[in-house]
Amino acid sequence: MNDKKIAKARLSFNQSEALNKNTYKKYEPKEKRYFIRDTKLEGFWIRIFPSGTKSYGITTRKGGVGKPKQTTIGR
Q1: DSSP state for residue 43 in the 8-state scheme
Q2: Are β-strands 34-38 and 69-74 bridged in parallel, bridged antiparallel, or unpaired?
Q3: Which of 4, 22, 52, 57 has a CA 20 to 30 Å removed from the CA of 39?
Q4: 20: left (phi over 0), alpha (psi -120 to 50) or beta
Q5: Cα Rg for the chain, rounded, in angstroms?
Q6: What is the pLDDT of residue 11?
Q7: Taking 70 as the threshold, does the pLDDT of residue 2 lie above it?
Q8: Contact residues for 1 (Cβ-Cβ < 8 A; gap 6+)
């Protein structure tokens, strides 16, 4: 038999769109947590957990330098 190795494709649930106050209503939980990132304000996101919990956050760098750090703003 000719066994071919096929690489598994990585599925990403992450999406980007212009966030507003009603964006969180459009998205449902999936099997893994995922992010909806803002296209207008760089660094802002909504994280959606498999349990259905949704949280707002921001990715920043202290003084604009160094590794990015994620900070949760609220749920």
Answers
A1: T
A2: unpaired
A3: 52
A4: beta
A5: 16
A6: 72
A7: no
A8: none
Please answer whether residues 47 and 33 qualify as being in contact, where contact means their C-beta atoms are separated by less than 8 angstroms: yes
Question: Counting Cβ atoms within 10 Å, is residue 38 exposed (0-12), middle (13-18) or buried (19+)?
Answer: middle
Average pLDDT over residues 15-37: 92
Residue with tokens 């998205």: 27
Question: How much is the pTM?
Answer: 0.76
Domain ranges within the chain, ordered by starting residue: 29-74
Alpha carbon distance 18, 31 (integer Å): 24
Q: Are 59 and 67 in contact (CB under 8 A)?
A: no
